[in-house]
Design brief:
about 40% helix, 24 helices, alpha+beta, Aldehyde Ferredoxin Oxidoreductase,  A, domain 1, Aldehyde Ferredoxin Oxidoreductase Protein, subunit A, domain 2, six-stranded mixed sheet, homodimer, Aldehyde Ferredoxin Oxidoreductase Protein, subunit A, domain 3, 3 domains
Chain lengths: ~625, ~625
């Protein structure tokens, strides 16, 4: 069953248990491409402003894109979008694995899920057909158990399963949507939205194969990738995983430590990717068709038994559940990672929330009476692991932390609010704005809260020093040198334009480790060729950036309708405080420079002084219909 | 003497007779590329607002660009920019020939001319050196005589000469700058600016050769051009010249007739390019390295003796001096064309002004008493030819017409103002906005007055009907069908984005018949490859469009400083009146639709409601310094 690059759209109403299949025209795909670009089209059209993100009126879109299914590295990713229960703004999360291609092979690009089932259900999608099935027997089960149960029930070991764990069922506000029990659509609580709809899982099986406009071109790019892979930074990602860069970050003073008080961690070597390779690494894992193999599989017996079925920790995880918490016990981190994958939680927000609680404890604002007796000191690995379980179970103190650090602090008060490290109520990911200054801006303005996958981090180059990187970035018109640690106009341009590029990646489900503007295996020129090879559309980088810009403008319009304003594009108090120790000792983000950069960023984006897209900007992007919604 | 793609900048102060040579850094060239992009940098920085365009404080920039000198079709063009004596706004005119490459071969990209010589001079530039020489003996001479005199005087028959004719000396407001006595930088009166500075000519000789980053890539593109030329529309341009399309325009009702009263002309066949081929064509001529050979050389004895030294008429000329005036005598048109080239005048404004005078005469507002006894009826070929001579000489009635139709009408009054067909005081070129609707918008908003070379005319396609053209345009992100004869939002986007593309062409001196977004020999993808091949810069279409947008924003900023406003982005009264006869019988531009389109165009450009660039728009384009000038 060959299919075109344009999958169908599955509309599932869980309240009425109806299923409809839509086949949009080609121009729809070319405008939105897929992923969260496509999702925003549905969310803006179907969601009334002000709905409860955990109520039946929220709409959850799971999507892939026009590139998904092509046999080449870095294209198998699923996007999840809905109004976020963590941020109250647009939610957005992405994960890799094999589910995305299996879903596309079944003939679809997206599922638009509305309503709420009266009891737990799961979706079963196979080769263009979809069915709502009872999930009463799966409810409460952890992800690995569900994988097994569904495959047995449907009698096909090759079925791919996207699901929530018990944390999603319990509406933990940073619950993730998992696939393969190891790939998380982690951020902004999309798992809680799925849980609120009583939707336990989406099982898929597809026997189709994508038909491409120019398969030779795609094969040629794949061959190029195989030949050049080991000469790129991606080779190191494959070797030691994303945590392989811990040493460099430590050196740069960019390893967030003890709830963002420092950029250096004395225990860095113990949580380093290379240490992982030398100790608990069982094997390297990969997503569909990808040569990078950046995913880890770890196994341990002591001091914690860690099940390799749940993979192994990423860099974000060794930082958030490690250095954020002052924890240098890699097995404990691996155990906490296992729990997050098993119960379905975002490791970043989970670790960030625990680190915040530890900070409160260290400062004496929280005591053992608050923490169910846990001694929540920085570095207490056992307490960290226990808290992860408590959060997943919403038990005791964990029930409070399951709301995320921002809401917990609001509840507790007593100055704990000042220790929170969030934007739009979402915890910072593990890249340090003091060191990589453009992130100060991007964390603040990103529509779905602090995020590290939405722009290229500060370039560590000037055109003279690193001509290759500069040449790569220059296809985006980024032709000037960009100094480090500032928020100059050039840096703001650089942040904004790379943001468009990464936003395009999120419209296609293109892995940012494999395709992107600077340090990735393939550059934007090659990505343009890939899009041409798969779709036959004569796209240029101009058009790709415009697709990305379209997504960002739709997201911002969504937030405006939800009542978010300029004050929400702001770093937390702690974001402006100087770090201590190492290369970033005494380094802070200057608030005045930040505010100036934000004003400029709004203006360069064609938004008004409050960050609201101007009608002309939306019209340029063919989004007149969005302008109508903002009236 | 090999030189890089970046030529030097020659600064000539004619008042002080000083010459300086500047070598800007690479980033300067990458930002502006050359041509009128580069020129705008100097004009905005050096010109105070409000100067007399014909006074010594005006600055005239003659320029080529980073591509000039490469051995491939369509790259030898010179741009002239200064404050326009015709429009009072920014002036801009371009011409082909061999001068541009000779100039680049001498090591330069631009001459920035300031001040005024106390008596006639000319510039002599050879291999990196420049000299101001006396031109007293050349003053008053026609172009062909000057070509001969300078070559003899300097003793090199290969010298290329850019010059003004007697019309430029006499400050005819639409005087042209000529090279080869056949190529005109015709529009906006740049010849008058040169005349006002007592600068008769710029003679150049260069023995250098461009050194390219990737000569093989350029050769490959040249080879592709040779192999594919005869399968493109450009082949027809070569065969019958630009006037070869008269039959199609007649059929479309898009041949401007009798001062824009009709889009059809009963004498069309007599002025058609094919008729020219069959009658007076002596040979086909070409610019440096170009395979198209669109230029005509005509010769005739009766009823007028036409000297082949002065080439032959373009389409614009057979229309403006032909159908505009109701004249179907091709030899008379060829004679008028010869006079324009000999005396240095823009055929379009010249013909447009005469047609307006004929209209006034037909309506009885002008009589023989006003016209030095000429019976100025439509179709009177002899009167037309005599008037061309009178204008060049500023003699009698010609002295008034030498001011252009707008100023002449202001002087005469009596309703003649309502017969004027100008934007920003410049006469319409020969493409009919009623039929090609996007031109209604572009004529109005173009910074240097009504112009047909600043955007792609309406596409006569939908994606289904003409996939190849659609695919070509789609590299600019123009992915939607664009209906004819409307000013829909899609049409406005289409006009604006192709305007950016053509503006880029004008930054590089890239001939619009050879390189461009839709119907040209080479498309924008190939142009991107060409820029890469010559410069080694890793440009994308995104960057090329940004360079074009930068030029347009600088031009608009220039006009804002000169006091132009929204009311100047307006069609003349006659621009809204329905045409009579043929396919456009009764067809008019709807004023409300036009005003709505203009508002949208401003907004999509990131300009305020009066068409003034917003600071954020300028910042996005790295033009913070221009924003400062607008404060």
């Amino acid at each position: 069953m060959p299919y075109g690059y344009m999958g169908k759209i599955l509309h599932v109403n869980l309240t009425n248990r109806t299923i409809e299949i839509e086949e949009p025209p080609e121009l729809f795909y070319r405008m939105y491409m897929g992923g969260s670009g496509l999702a925003m089209h549905y969310l803006l059209n179907m969601l009334e402003p002000g709905v409860d993100p955990l109520g039946p009126d929220n709409v959850l879109v799971l999507s892939v894109g026009v590139l998904t299914g092509a046999p080449i590295s870095g294209l198998s990713r699923v996007m999840a979008n809905a109004k976020s229960p963590l941020t109250g703004a647009i939610g957005d999360a992405q994960g890799g694995g094999f589910w995305p291609v299996e879903f596309k092979n079944a003939g679809f690009d997206a599922i638009v899920i509305t309503g709420k089932a009266d009891k737990p259900v799961y979706l079963w999608i196979q080769d263009g057909q979809a069915e709502i099935r009872d999930a009463g027997h799966l409810w409460g089960k952890v992800t690995g158990e569900v994988d097994k149960a569904i495959r047995e029930e449907l009698g096909d070991p090759r079925i791919q399963i996207l699901q929530i764990g018990p944390a999603g069922e319990k509406l933990v506000r940073f619950a993730a949507i998992m696939n393969m029990s190891t790939r998380a659509c982690g951020r902004t609580g999309m798992g809680a939205v799925m849980g609120s709809k009583n939707l336990k899982a989406v099982a898929v099986r597809g026997h189709g194969r994508i038909e491409m406009a120019d398969p030779d071109k795609v094969r040629e790019l794949a061959q190029w990738g195989r030949e050049n892979f080991e000469h790129t930074g991606m080779w190191a990602f494959g070797l030691h995983g994303t945590a392989g860069g811990v040493n460099s970050l430590q050196e740069l003073g960019a390893l967030p430590t003890r709830n963002w008080s420092s950029g250096v961690f004395e225990g860095w070597e113990k949580i380093w990717g290379q240490t992982m390779s030398d100790t608990i690494l069982k094997e390297r894992d990969t997503c569909y068709g990808c040569i990078v193999r950046c995913k880890r599989v770890v196994e341990a017996k002591e001091p914690y038994e860690v099940d390799p079925y749940y993979g192994g920790p990423e860099y974000e995880t060794v930082a958030s559940l490690g250095s954020y918490c002052g924890v240098d016990n890699l097995v404990a981190i691996a155990k906490a990672n296992e729990l997050c994958n098993k119960y379905g939680m975002d490791t970043i927000s989970c670790g960030g929330t625990i680190a915040w609680a530890m900070d409160c404890y260290e400062k004496g604002i929280l005591t053992k009476e608050d923490t169910d007796g846990l001694e929540l000191k920085f570095g207490n690995a056992e307490a960290m692991v226990q808290l992860v379980q408590k959060i997943a179970d919403r038990q005791g103190f964990g029930d409070l932390l399951a709301e995320g650090s921002y809401r917990a602090a609001q509840k507790i008060g007593k100055g704990t609010e000042e220790l929170v490290v969030t934007v739009k109520k979402q915890e910072y990911p593990a890249h340090v704005p003091q060191a990589k200054r453009s992130l100060a801006l991007v964390y603040a303005v990103n529509p779905f809260g602090a995020d590290h996958m939405s722009s290229d981090h500060d370039p560590n180059y000037d055109p003279g020093a690193d001509k290759a990187t500069h040449a790569r970035a220059s296809v985006l018109g980024l032709i000037n040198p960009v100094p480090n640690r500032d928020l100059s106009n050039e840096k703001v341009r650089w942040a904004m334009v790379t943001e468009y590029a990464y936003s395009f990646l999120d419209c296609c489900g293109t892995c940012q480790f494999v395709w992107g503007p600077t340090w990735q295996l393939y550059d934007m020129d090659q990505l343009r060729e890939l899009v041409r090879g798969i779709t036959g559309w004569r796209v240029s980088i101009h058009e790709l950036l415009e697709v990305g810009q379209r997504r960002l403008n739709m997201m911002r319009a969504f937030n405006v309708r939800e009542g978010l304003g300029k004050e929400d594009d702001m770093l937390p108090k702690k974001g402006f405080i100087a770090l201590k120790g190492g290369a970033t000792d005494g380094v802070s983000v200057d608030k005045e420079e930040f505010l100036k950069a934000r004003d400029l960023y709004y203006a360069m984006n064609g938004w008004d002084e409050n960050g609201v897209p101007l009608p002309g900007t939306l019209a340029k992007l063919r989004l007149e219909w969005v302008a109508e919604k903002l009236k």
